[in-house]
Amino acid sequence: MSVLKQQAAGSSAVQKQLAQAQAQNAQLQEQLASSLQPAQGMQTGEAVKLSPATQDIVAQGLATIVIDSKGTHLVVQAENLPTLEGNEAFQVWLIKGDTPQNAGTFLSHNGTGAVYYTLDSANDYDTVAITLEPDAMGDEPRGTMILAAKIKG
Hints:
Layout: H1 2-35, E1 43-52, E2 60-68, E3 71-79, E4 89-96, E5 99-106, E6 113-118, E7 127-133, E8 144-150
Antiparallel strand pairs: 1-2, 1-8, 2-3, 3-6, 4-5, 4-7, 7-8
Organism: Phytophthora kernoviae 00238/432
GO molecular function: sigma factor antagonist activity
Protein name: Anti-sigma K factor RskA C-terminal domain-containing protein
């Protein structure tokens, strides 16, 4: 009889775990369905013109903070960018003081490119910048600054 009680107790524990897993699965499916829906109520926050870092650069750009039902985002667009060679890439940085935060990389097409980056809640950066990097794998700026602007953060 004790073997039957152990099997019954084991079966009950498995059923409980299965019910918890099913509930968690249902919750994850709801989150996934929500994330696939278009954002609603989009508002434009701060928008700043990105200025060339040196006089010989003809590139220009715009950095815009966008707020919607899914969070706060940074949209960076640039044009008249220098031509990329080999593995080079453009990288966007959010900077607070001397500390850069990678906001994404992009490859240009006919001198234009863009990045979309979701900001965390502690988005008190003071500068947004674009650099020309040797590749798209940098954790900190290694290349030449192309465009930059002060932001309120």
